Amino acid sequence: MSTAAPRSRRHGRVRWWTYLMLSAATVACLFPLYWMFIVATTDTATATQMPPEVVPGGNFFALAGLVMETVPFVQALLNSLFVATAIGVGQAVLCALAGYAFAKLAFPGRNVLFLIVLLTMTVPTQLSVIPQYMIMSELGWVDTLQALVVPGLASAFGIFWMRQHITATISDELMQAARIDGANSWQVFWRIAFPIVRPAAFVLGLFGFVTAWNDFLWPFIVLKSPERYTAQIAIKALQNSYDVDLGLAMSGSFMATVPLVALFVLVGRRMVAGILEGAFKG
């Protein structure tokens, strides 16, 4: 026993080089955001000089005001918030519902349909732009926010994610017990299955939120009016056809990044816990 205790203490002790590696990784991850802020507080000449400037300047609020004057940036942030929130919530609920159906409900063609869902993950997103735009045009949704929300309410990856998680975490005996008590399929899902897989659905919703917030290609194609721009399209509108004002562009980019950083600070611990829970249970 005298030799086991020191050995366990040695294994439980964190080495100094572990902290060094974690600190280096943290600096590497945060440096792009810091550099973005530096450029957002200076002009293009200062941003491109050699050696580069490493101390923030004093022009951030002036450039931020210029961003607001150039494009309706606050409205763009609100549009992005609405679209990203709707897509995040929609994916969390609808993908969980579809994953539950593929995992626990028996119906003709279940395996074939799930295989088709998986095959759609192999199709590049760019190939769906033209038919998707044609559908939006027929519906009269071009230059509307629902053209961004509706196509993103479900995803093949989200359905696969939730199907695997539900298969691993919800037993058939639990569902049978609920059905014996008189619950129908919807009640089993909403009152039993969904509360159990809520952490995984929460993580999926966050992934959907971040993806929708950072999306550029589809909003750039379908949106025409400045008052309906999302944050990424508003940043593109800050650039003209001939040159790029780096300070102006980075000021808009920094203001569009701050909400994501704040979101991660608020829910980062819960997101990591949801990912680890799915990893251990799977």
UniProtKB/TrEMBL annotation:
Gene Ontology, cellular component aspect: plasma membrane
ABC transmembrane type-1 domain residues: 77-267
Transmembrane helix keyword on record: yes
Entry-linked PROSITE patterns: ABC_TM1 (PS50928), PROKAR_LIPOPROTEIN (PS51257)
Cell compartments where the protein resides: Cell membrane
Transmembrane segments: 16-37, 76-100, 112-133, 145-162, 188-213, 246-267
Major localization class: membrane
InterPro entries per UniProt: MetI-like, MetI-like_sf
Keywords linked to the UniProt accession: Cell membrane, Membrane, Transmembrane, Transmembrane helix, Transport
Topology relative to the membrane: Multi-pass membrane protein
UniProt keyword Zinc present: no
Pfam families: BPD_transp_1
GO biological process: transmembrane transport
Highest taxon listed in the record's lineage: Bacteria
PANTHER family to which the protein is assigned, alphabetical: ABC TRANSPORTER PERMEASE PROTEIN MG189-RELATED (PTHR43744:SF12), ABC TRANSPORTER PERMEASE PROTEIN MG189-RELATED-RELATED (PTHR43744)
The family this protein is said to belong to: Belongs to the binding-protein-dependent transport system permease family.
Protein name: Sugar ABC transporter permease
Species name: Saccharothrix coeruleofusca
Gene it is expressed from: cebG
